[in-house]
UniProtKB/TrEMBL annotation:
Keywords: Hydrolase, Metal-binding, Zinc. It comes from the Bacteria. This is MBL fold metallo-hydrolase. Belongs to the metallo-beta-lactamase superfamily. SUPFAM superfamilies: Metallo-hydrolase/oxidoreductase (SSF56281). It comes from Flexivirga aerilata. InterPro entries: MBL_superfamily_lactonases, Metallo-B-lactamas, RibonucZ/Hydroxyglut_hydro. The keyword Hydrolase applies. CDD domains: metallo-hydrolase-like_MBL-fold. Residues 43-258 form the Metallo-beta-lactamase domain. Pfam families: Lactamase_B. Coiled coil: none annotated. The lineage of its organism: Bacteria, Bacillati, Actinomycetota, Actinomycetes, Micrococcales. GO terms for molecular function: hydrolase activity; metal ion binding.
Length: 280
């Protein structure tokens, strides 16, 4: 499905349709009143954004063959995502890549395994990485505990970020970045230090790719609920609330990475989610 905002077109490309987690593993303070189910079912989605000047990929998915012995939900994917992406854009034709943040399910797809080496998937693309996000990941790598989740973030750096850096394809950027035609990469910190959203605006039209500011629609009922991966939960809450208020006020389209697109409306109690399509 293609969405358009003025002259900019957006196509959603799903890496994984169903990715299940125990609710308390994702949201340690979740209550049955907030979410009564036994599992949370996420997707992993990426977005191809075409402006009159460039073709951009927002988030690259988890990628295949990654070794994640701690964050096992990210371990050993074998999907046909790159084949499906190629029906929208060939990797060689991507001009710009922006990952909303450098967690494994958003930047792992920057590289693929070729003859036992990790090589960049998007050989021509400038990979725009906020200076703060790269410094944050590099500082974690420097202190990586081999038994904890941080060890898999270090592996993510080594197999998915460093090869792109070594190939000279990463531009460390200061935010915001204006890519023209209403496309802006904007700071949205909290989930990670340098997390970004990608905003698309044209006149009254507004859409935003939100990365991990939101993981599931039930969060509309309690925007303060922290995700287990939040680097700074208070900041993440503040950023999440600003985004949801902006969407509700503008009528803009939310393009999430872990559930389907839709709109936010205000209710007497807070906010409600209006999916574009039935189901996720
Ligand atoms: Zn994620």
């Amino acid at each position: 499905m293609t969405y358009s905002v003025g002259p900019v077109e957006v196509e959603r490309v799903v890496e994984l349709e169903s990715w299940r987690f125990a609710p308390a593993d994702m949201f340690p303070a979740v209550t049955p009143e907030l979410y009564a189910g036994d599992s949370l079912d996420f997707t992993i989605a990426t977005y191809v954004v075409r402006t009159p000047d460039l073709t951009m990929l927002v988030d690259a998915g988890n990628g295949n063959d990654k070794h994640r012995p701690v964050l096992t939900a990210h371990d050993g994917f074998h999907t046909d995502y790159l084949d499906r992406l190629a029906t929208v854009v060939e990797p060689e034709d991507v001009d710009v890549v922006v990952c909303t943040h450098l967690h494994p399910d958003h930047c792992g797809g920057l590289t693929r395994l070729v003859d036992a080496s990790w090589v960049p998937v998007f050989p021509r693309a400038r990979h725009l990485v906020p200076r703060e996000e790269l410094a944050w990941l590099q500082s974690l790598v420097a202190t990586a505990d081999v038994d904890g989740p941080v060890a898999d973030l270090a592996r993510t750096y080594e197999d998915s970020v460093r090869p792109v850096l070594d190939a000279g394809l990463i531009d460390e950027v200061d935010l915001p970045v204006d890519l023209g035609h209403g496309v802006t990469v904007r700071a949205a910190p909290g989930h990670t230090a340098g997390h970004v959203v990608v905003e698309l605006s044209h006149g009254d039209e507004f859409a935003v790719v939100c990365g991990d500011l939101l993981h599931h629609p039930f969060q509309m009922a309690d925007l303060a609920l922290a995700h287990s991966g939040d680097f700074d939960p208070d900041r993440a809450h503040q950023t999440r609330r600003q985004l949801v208020e902006k969407l509700a006020d503008s009528g803009g389209l939310l393009l999430p990475c872990h559930f389907g697109p839709g709109h936010v409306t205000r209710t007497t109690a807070g906010f409600a989610w209006q999916p574009l399509r039935r189901g996720r």
